[in-house]
Amino acid sequence: MPDRAVLLTGSIAYDTVLHHAKRFDESLRAEHLAHLNLTFYAPAMRRDFGGCAANIAYAMAKLGGNPVLWGALGSDGAPYRERFASWRMDLSGLVTLPDVFTSQCFITTDAAGNQLASFHPGAMDRAHEAPWPDAADPVLVAISPGGHDAMIAQADEALKRGVPYLFDPGQAVPLFEGDELRELALHAAYAAFSDYEAAMITEKTGLTPEDLARAGVTVFHTHGSRGSTVRVAGDAHAWSVPAAPLLLPPGAAPDPVGAGDAYRGGLLWALARGTDPVEAARTASVVGAMKVESRGTQDYALSEPLMRERLGTLPEARRL
């Protein structure tokens, strides 16, 4: 039986990734930050397909899942539409808006893996104009970083249709007032965020990850190379899920761009199959590591057998 669909909202973008050979903090001076005029020399550059929703879709599709994008492309979106079609995805929830560009992200990474990014939202800000993908029978909706109005409208539509959603606000947290974030988080079945995002959410809403779990939300709290913490709704204890070790050849550098999206792709694939949240986070940990080992957000080797081989070597989660 084929996997039930997961509707993926959020950015579908073209990425320009530049690499600065030194550390950003070697050039930044606190006394000059108020009047910053600085160029980071970046001798290496590449252009990729990216965007949170599209990156998540890639991971799910490679694992054999059923991701369905629910969003918008701009007038320059034809290459992306062709790419999605090559993955044999249901495109009934994807619209093309001829009067705007597809979202564009410009990312600079330094020698320590730190990132600076500029993002043009383009069609993403009008993703709420995309129809509910009637061809799909979704088991879950992922509300990933996108436009303010679109994220609210899509969460409301999921609730109206009785489909649970995962709230994954990411870099979109600053777009929302505290009351808006609070409503989006408390109506979610699941929430996923990093340490930095968790701190911003707590500052804006007063809600900690523990508060959300007590309110009935299953929380996936990621800590980068330190793994993740899972708080299952109704369980008084948290679970510590280890990060999967990186398998890099000597001299190879990790590429962290898109690792969080890969994690979410593995997570959603597992949850859509009915996997319990802690085991789903272990799957997500492996997929995130497999992405970090390769350059690009949608070019790494991934399949269910490859993932399961790595999963078999990952230590079990530890109850805290």
UniProtKB/TrEMBL annotation:
Annotated GO molecular function terms are: kinase activity
Task: Classify the source by domain of life.
Answer: Bacteria
One Pfam family it belongs to: PfkB
- Entry's InterPro entries? Carboh/pur_kinase_PfkB_CS, PfkB_dom, Ribokinase-like
Instruction: Provide the alphabetized UniProt keywords.
Output: Kinase, Transferase
The record's listing under PROSITE patterns reads: PFKB_KINASES_1, PFKB_KINASES_2
Reply yes or no: does the keyword Iron apply. Answer: no
Domain Carbohydrate kinase PfkB: from-to ranges: 36-299
Q: Which PANTHER family match?
A: RIBOKINASE, SUGAR KINASE
Q: What is this protein called?
A: Kinase, PfkB family
The organism named in the record is Sutterella parvirubra YIT 11816
The organism's lineage is:
Bacteria, Pseudomonadati, Pseudomonadota, Betaproteobacteria, Burkholderiales
